[in-house]
Amino acid sequence: MMAPTEVLAMANRMIYLTLAWAALASAPALAQTSDTVPAAATSAAQMTTAARALLATLGADELTAMLFALDADERSHWSNVPYQAHHRPGLRLGGLNREQMLRVHDLLRASLSSQGYQKVAGIIRLDDINRSQQVAGLAPDASAYQKAQAQSFGSDNYFVAFFGDPRKDARWGWLIQGHHLGVSFTVADGRTSFLPMFVGATPLSVEENVETGWSALAQEVTRGVELLRSLTASQRTAALSPDAVPGDVLNGVGLKQRFTPSEGLRAATMAPEQKRLLRALVEEYVENADFDAADAQLAAIATAGWDELTFTWRGSEGDLDEPFYYRVQGPRIIIELRNSENHVHTITRDPANDYGEAWLGLTYRETVTAAERSAAARRAAE
Helix, strand, or coil here: 180? Predict the structure, then answer.
């Protein structure tokens, strides 16, 4: 028998999905290919061209390792943990030649906006800095597992995989994943999706050498803090949760089947200037995608209703040295950030269309959380 809290969570999820599916059903079939955008300029067309160029550089064995069925379990079994805890499918960036790496970056630029590309490329670059710090910080009596994990960070341990074949299919997807990164792109009959998208950073702000002050995720924390600080006393009472700061985002990988219920301050009760800050926060995440995919996601949020969004906050109120957490949630968007000292995790999801599943007529299940992967890897090493 389910606990009352589980019943409430399920009821909320069903309400969200009912609203979201209604919005999807009434939306134009090719909302991202309007008359004002030439077909060749759409992200779907550019992603397809870039993907074909990358695949053309691969040999037979590499293609076998790279290509999966569109409905393969591997598509939703990504993670953001270090390589030591998850040996991923697909091709490893560290094993690609120069031409192949150039084509990977072409595909990233075709799939993301300039800000999104800089974030993803920055996260990958940051992991080299993180590896240096982790290795330097190893204790003299560190275990073999700890040493192997420290060495497993780094830009070479990110993986790319395709689901479906962009050389011949109108419906396909691709995934890039590694430590602090998991982005699943979908192309479906001219439409594109970029969710779920997990981006994180350690360090959030570099504190040494010539890169001092650099941050790959420069505004995610700031946008949430700005919104919180704009609230009145009564609004803060609604937004601030007494619950403890969670150890990670609550709707991360492995949790698709049990999203959190909506809670906190309703956007409908916000003043116009606060709603603008809320929209700026949402745009900071959604506009990581190329312009037409971002426009389509923002339109989906608008159709479901901006006033349906909620904002909740836990923990310290903007002190980067203390843990805090925020979440924006509605029928067509979930955005979360969990902050600890110079370390953030974020995730963006669409409860109705993660992995483009509403367009594809597929249902993807996530069965392993990041914490479960890490715990299993530690047990296996004992």
Answer: coil
